[in-house]
Amino acid sequence: MTRLPKPFYFRLLPGLLAFALLSSFAGVETQASTTSVSCPALLDQTFPRLQDDEPRSLCEFQGKVILVVNTASYCGFTQQYEGLETLYRNYKDQGLVVLGFPSNDFSQEPGSNQQIAEFCSNTFSVRFPMFAKTKVKGPGANPLFAQLTRLAEAPGWNFHKYLIGRDGKLVSSYSSAVSPDSRRLRRDLQAALALKPL
After folding, report:
1. Domain 41-194 adopts which CATH fold?
2. 26-75 tens-digit pLDDT
3. Could you state, in order of their start, the residue ranges of all structural domains in the chain?
4. If pLDDT is split at 50, 70 and 90, which confidence band does 7 have?
5. Ramachandran sector of residue 157 (left: φ over 0; alpha: ψ -120 to 50; beta: rest)
6. How many contiguous H segments (helices) and E segments (strands) does the chain have?
7. Residues recognised as catalytic
8. From CA 90, how far away is CA 93, in angstroms rounded?
């Protein structure tokens, strides 16, 4: 009995299957790479948490409206902790996160990270994310503040504020004298929250 030759497409089948398999893996790799680079440049950095020095990536806050504040425990503006916590509590479900960066750049935050954490928790019941004590101005400023001060003014004192939109770009900057409940800050904050994540 004469064996008929296999149709042409049968001979191509192993090669086609191998190509499809490789393509699917390449697709997974491309997708993973796209995900890793999607974090905005301003947020693509990691800082130790105040409470335990565990590293925390700011990329986890992408898509949110972020209020970055340099804080201090012994400052005339320290009472602003209360207003910042109120803002966070009132707007976090809409997408706001407040990020606190204690600093002794103005000689009003001499304590250790543990002392600062206890002060924030016990005195003002702070629940928004806080990071380890850091520098926020000058040549030694941490990378986030170094970038922010290239886009706007550097902190002139404690409790300077930077508002970052859902797209990871700076919206505005506010001096220490602009309180968390100021009309201007709230107007800008509500406008930023009204924009849907990309």
Report:
1. Glutaredoxin (3.40.30)
2. 444 333 333 445 899 999 999 999 999 999 999 999 999 999 999 999 99
3. 10-38, 41-194
4. low
5. beta
6. 5, 6
7. 75
8. 8
